Amino acid sequence: MFATSLGDNAELRPLEPWQAEEFLTHMDRARELVTEHVGLADAVTDLESARNFLTSYANKQAADAGRIYGVWLDDTLVGGVLFRIFDAPGGNCEVGCWLEPAATGRGLVTRAITVLIDWAVYRRGIHRVEWVASSANLASVKVAQRLGLRLDGILRESSLHHGRRQDHEVWAVLAPEWRELRRDTP
Question: Residue 79 half-sphere exposure, CB side, CA atoms within 13 Å?
Answer without folding.
Answer: 25
